[in-house]
Amino acid sequence: MEAIEHPPIFRLPAIFSDGYIPDHVTYTWLVMIILTGIAFVASRRMELVPRGAQNFLEVVLEQFQALIDDVIGPEGRPYLPLIATLGLFILTGNLLSLIPGFAGPTANLNTTAACALIVFVSYHAIGIRKQGLVNYFKHFMGPVPLLAPLMVPIELISHLARPLSLSLRLFGNMTGGHILLAIIFFLMGLDGLIGWALSGSKAGALVGGIGGLIMVVFTVGFLYPLKILVSVLQAFIFVMLTMLYIAGATEEAEHHHAEHH
Amino acid sequence: MSRSLMLALGAVFAFPGLSAAQGPAAATGGWVGPFAVIAAGIGMALAAGLCGLGQGRAVAAAVDAMARQPAAAARIQTAMIIGLALIESLAIYVLVVAMILLFVQPIKG
């Protein structure tokens, strides 16, 4: 992958070995610093009538809370810290990669797999804590005991596929967008080279200038808005699926009981 | 004029070779590299086309439902976005496989 990626602006040297700390780790720390800074500024002087940063962060978190109320219901509010942290981290990481010279942490499979594993472990933990160990794994056997040999492998595979699809979706979307941008920039350089080679004649300036202008307009006018949209959408989808998994882990009990009585 | 034209042609023809030198073909050196490129291209094309068909059906049904019942538009839109993400992830799997074939190159031939 290094062949098509530009080196980021800053790299930190590794302490215990030669070379550098991997870029996605460095930029994960940057995202952490940004988010912690915003939270610190917003909560430093809390007021009853919020202003400035506190107001902004309250609006953002209220959106998350409304989403949780909509999907899980009011009993899902204890999971607001988990869901909002994941959402803000992924959104900031996605948007960070749009700044030229910055490497996005979410365009690396390690980061997204870590997020997906956190979701995987925590929704099972929430389900077990809500329903008890035996009761929770009883749902893996399906509604009828006769179907259990068929249902258990299907359920196991579908549950194990969840972190895989969560991590690969985010990683693929981000990396695909980066490859697209890299190819467009590569073409821009090629186009400039043709213009330079033909210079001395008016055709060179014409080809290079107009072609470069078209590329710049295409990138700034179409690709960047598209990437911003994809960044927000992927963060939303990650959070939405997390909430759906938690809702599925907590709700199944009532549904099951309703069937029996 | 002719020299600058040659330079331009050289730039055009040198660049694929240059990108191949740091990319797939030279790294493996065997016959797997070119086939990996072909497989990645054909696979991604198939996945993108079929995923587009599926997403088109989903969006058509969602827009139909929204037009019939504008009051439920918000909920339908949320469900549509989740469904689109699930359909799109199938194409994303192929993209990841294509990237693994091109850049990670697990099979050296």
Structure description:
The complex is a heterodimer of chains A (261) and B (109). By secondary structure, chain A is mostly helical. Chain A has one domain (23-260). Helix content of chain A is 75%, strand content 0%. The radius of gyration of chain A is 24 Å and the shape is globular. Chain A starts with 22 loop residues before the first helix and ends with a helix. By secondary structure, chain B is mainly alpha-helical. Chains A and B meet through helix 6 and helix 7 of A and helix 1 and helix 4 of B.
Notable traits:
heterodimer; A: mainly alpha; 7 helices; 0% strand; B: 109 residues; F1FO ATP Synthase
> Mind summarizing the main beta sheet of chain A?
none
CATH C-level label of chain B: Mainly Alpha
- Proportion of helical residues of chain A: over 70%
**What form of chain A results from the Cα inertia axes?**
globular
How many helices of chain B?
Answer: 4
Q: Report the principal-axis shape of chain B.
A: elongated
Helix content of chain B: over 70%
Q: What would you call the quaternary organization? A: heterodimer
User: How many β-strand stretches of chain B?
Assistant: 0
Question: Which range does the strand content of chain B fall in?
Answer: under 5%
Element-by-element helix/strand order of chain B: HHHH
Number of H- or I-type helical stretches of chain A: 7
Distance N to C terminus of chain A: 57 Å
Largest interface (C-beta under 8 Å): A-B, 28 and 24 residues
Mean pLDDT value of chain A: 83
Order of helices and strands of chain A: HHHHHHH
